[in-house]
Amino acid sequence: MELREIFDQQVLKELEKELYGKSFNWIMNCSGSSFNNDLGKNFESLAMDFHDLKNFKHYDYITETCNKIYTDKNRKFCGTKSKILMYPSGYDGLIHVDSSTTDNILTTITFLNSDWQKTWGGEILCYSTDCKVVVGGVVPDFGKTFLFNGAMPHRAIAPIRMSSLLRTVLVTKEQ
Fold it and tell me: pLDDT at position 81, please?
């Protein structure tokens, strides 16, 4: 697990403004989890495919930066598995893994709320294989990218109900 500043802050602020100011094709992200088979599919967040950002003026920069992150780790970035997620207050994510294998799968989460207050929650938690122990995590911090093994069980904690924003993240995955 690693927390880094990878993207240009001004580009991320422009992306944030674009996400909140324009009409995008947001879908309800309903996910199940192998850890919670009895729950079925549940609303977790709003989602938009990474490639829906193609008209954003810095799309090429973001794509090149993502490619560099993965290349530096001897991995290959997959735009089709990557997305933007918005988490409303009260909607925790389910514990899940990004791969059914136990291989080390690189996942990154970049926080896109420039006005986020630490007291609003919205953490990402990572768990032991049996999901009994929290082994790591991160508090949202604008512009920071959390790199971790996506084969590790993890989840997004919802923002508290008093936050004034949807917690917005760029999630990237490898091929």
Answer: 92
Per-residue confidence (pLDDT) for residue 5, from 0 to 100: 96
Cα distance between residue 148 and residue 135, in whole Å: 12
Q: For residue 6, with 0-12 CB atoms within 10 Å meaning exposed, 13-18 middle and 19 or more buried, which class applies?
A: middle
Alpha carbon of residue 138 to chain centroid: 12
Report the distance separating Cα 109 and Cα 89, nearest Å: 18
Name the amino acid, one letter, at 31. S
- Cα–Cα distance measured from residue 38 to residue 41, given in angstroms and rounded to the nearest whole number: 9
What would the pLDDT profile of 72-116 be if each residue is shown by its tens digit? Answer: 999 999 999 999 988 877 777 788 888 877 688 999 999 999 999
The distance between the two most distant Cα atoms of the chain, rounded to a whole number of Å, is: 43
Helix (H, G, I), strand (E, B), or coil: what is residue 156? Answer: strand
Q: For residues 97 and 11, give the distance between their C-alpha atoms in angstroms, rounded to a whole number.
A: 29
Distance CA 105, CA 30 (A): 22
pLDDT tens for each residue of 25-59: 655 554 544 555 544 455 456 788 899 899 899 99
